[in-house]
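Field: COMPLEX_INPUT
Field: COMPONENT_COUNT = three
Field: RESIDUE_TOTAL = 1024
Field: MODE = joint
Values follow.
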Amino acid sequence: MRSWFARAWSGAALVVPVWRMLPWRALGAAGAVGLLPVALARVSGARPGPLETLVLVRGAVLALALGLAFLLDDPARHTTAPVPARRALRVALRAALVAPVAALWWTAVLLLAPGSGRPPVGDVTLEAATACVLAVAAATVALRHFDEPEPGRGVATTLLAGAVLAPLLLPARWALFVAPADPRWAAAHERWAWVLAGAVVVGAAQLREPLVRRPVLRSPCGTSGPSRTC
Amino acid sequence: MTVTVSACGLTLRYGAARALDDVSVRLGRGVTGLLGPNGAGKTTLLRVLATAVPADTGAFTVLGHDPGTARGRQEVRRALGYLPQTPGFHPDFTPFEFVDYVAILKELTDRAARHREVRRVLEQVGLGEVRGKRIKKLSGGMRQRVALAAALVGDPGFLVLDEPTVGLDPEQRLRFRELIADAGEDRTVLLSTHQTEDVAMLCHRVLVMAAGRIRFDGTPAELAARADGRVWSSTARDPGAKAGWRTGTGAFRNVGDPPEGADLLEPTLEDGYLLTLDDDLAEVTA
Amino acid sequence: MTATLMRKPAPAAASTGARDSRAAVSALARFEARRLLLSIPVVLAFALYVAWIVWRTLRPSDDYPVLQDADRATQGGPLLVGLVAMLAANQAALRSLRRDTERHFAVLALTPWRRTAAHVLSVVPLALLTAAAVTAQFTWEALKSGAVGRGSVAELLTGPLLVLLFGAIGVLLARLYPSAVAGPLLVVVFLLLFVGGAFPFGGETGPVWLRPVVTTSGVHPFPSDLLGRPAAWHALYLAGLALTAALLAVLVSGGRTRSVRAGLVGVSVLAVLAGVVQTGGVPAATEAARTRASLTPEKDQTCLRRGPSHYCAFPEWTPLVDDWARVAGRVQALAGGSAHERPLLVRQRLEARYGLSGDAALEPATRPDQVTVGTSWGGNRVPEFSMAVAGVLVAGNERRAGELCDGRMVTLMWLSLAWQPDPESVLRNVRLDDSLTGSAVVLSRTEPLTMTAGQTEVVRGLFHRPFQDVAARVKTHWSELTAPGVTTDRAGRLLGVHEEVGLDRCAG
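Field: COMPLEX_OUTPUT
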């Protein structure tokens, strides 16, 4: 109980420094680039059809996801890695701090999307959430497997390649990027939900800080574990 | 002494702070050490001489070229080897690629000659065998040597080294000293460091900076001589000493103004440096 | 470690040659180009691009390429390579900032603006490689035995110029907004604009030409004189934009020399001029030529005689006349009565008045024995043509063939398909819904035909009967089979298929 309280307290104390460490410049640029086309479509009075609106909204989501790829960038990583506050706590704190801002931004995108062509809100929100979680999960994977303080650039490039290639290469029965009028819309969103769940699981699995670099065979006098003694 | 680098009245301000305050120096061939506490203006002086930042006032020439003109600055840069305080690296490059890249930026354009030169400097800093390995796989000391190779490539006439031995183990430091001494045989080398031992071992001349000014300019022996008669041994820490510490023998080594009849010791360059700074501080506060 | 302490005799400093900034820029450009070409995203994108070329060119429907269309079909792939080049060039130009080597590099002899110029130049080899791929793709098409028409160098230049333009934009972006997130975000914007359909202008002419790639792929190829695409101006526009972006990047990096400024003014004027001119629309002369080709094609065509028939085609298509004659000959060989040797006039026709993307059906010809052939060939176009020939042989002219609703449909379909290796699968291909049962619309270059369920059943039954037997029966009963009003049921029985089929469409 006490340890839980101590952890919560240390988490609360971290809020302000973590808030200041977030890559606001990248997130701001991504948010602006995503919002701009939707806003321009609204302001110019153009009446895009449902498909065009969906493309604009998906473009906005991709832009934000690219910004979120930089969420875990930490130039001081080599200094902050061995602190007692766990990586899971630090990552969760970053995600928690950015989530309300992302939610506000998403609301703005939906409100700006022309009403007549607005895609089903629940379903596109699922797509947006999946893209964002995928971006952060990919960043956690990069954090775990590469000793790079700022893996955001590589994560963003990978994410972008995935976003371009997935609609081209995914077989029709696994299609994710379908139009609202497409009969596969509901099935596609079931797949989106699965991808979201997968991303959450993968992301969470990466947060554990391994005690050993790779599993070693048990030896009669091992030294690989911290508590192992002869 | 043939003067190769000559600066006169260099002044540079950062807001209200004077990073350089009317600095004048004349350097010749060989290794000149630059000592001083943090914030003394050493790096700023090095950056001005390396043409990284122009001084507010004052002028200097390097190997006869005046960096105050575009053409002169270009000539200075062509003759310059620079090792910044915290050199960056391109971790995905190999040492060969990185030094080759720097060589191109130094306008070494004949490919075959350039590659020969890159191999030569890598060989010289002892990285010949790992020149094809990615820099991210190298140790800190090896990376530092990559940076030195990048400074040495192109046979520069003026070498500016900003704390090159920071973070090196004693063996690596020894190797570095060897390299720098080699480099100083026929070049002008300006070496900024906190390691007084490096200066004592390497330099034929030493400058001490504090608060943006040159406080001492002479040989290492002259700097050490400033502490003549001001270092003594005692069985307990002498309250009158400016600095004192128990040595391995159990006796205290004190630096400052000794009491009558004190057991005087042979001063080192570090003692001279400490006293120079201390006298200087006294001067400033007075 | 002690090995490093062993003092090795330091080799003497090598002679490093003369120092020259311009040569250094080119050396740096070569260095950066090598890294760019070997970077994983570029290698992957290029591999994907080559795979796309191979897949596209090997499609059977691409056996008879029309080269004035094949040239602009080379423009889509380089868009992908260009976007990746933009990302890679952007990251390369940001490398020294990201890795904190800028403080060191800033005092080296090669000035920042020259380094920027080298980064721009480093994209050139990738653009040349793209040009090689474009040339290979087009040459492959041109070497196909069925290729007709002629390509345009300006259309072929678009792909490599795109790569150059996007690469230069990547470097410019690095100088204007030095952040790792900017490159990927610009890719998103470009994808939205140029792939996602968010570009505010559409159509075939006018401001749509401000897009980097305007493919307007139509279904029916035009003779090259009628294309009306300002391809040369567009290539100039792209080249102007690429150079503007490149010189702007150099200028932003501090290269404010007189020649850079003058060059920037020159190339931006070129880009604006070409950009404006290309949006001017289709020239009046081309419009007039399109109308003439649509309404009075005989004025532009070359006629060749093959057997008893004449074949009139736009000059670029005359190499296909032998293919047409072979198909028409096969169909005619199966026909009976006078149709067997009737001289036909096969005329190539085109509706060019509504632009390249127009897909209007042609009016059926009313002149007896005139058969229409379109401007594309290969794939389904072959059975469509054989149906047109069979229609004229059975009904007398195209208009009447289009109105067929009785049992003559059975003879028409058998004549047009029976000589093919796998007539049933061809039948499936020419039916709009790809079905083999029930009623369906059958595609044609003029008015589409309609097959009832009964006719489909009888025709399929005929395909399953011995070919020689059916052929003999067709010749024997030719006049009854082609007489107006013959029922499908009767036609089937005459040809040996005794299926119970419903009434014909026009019987009720």
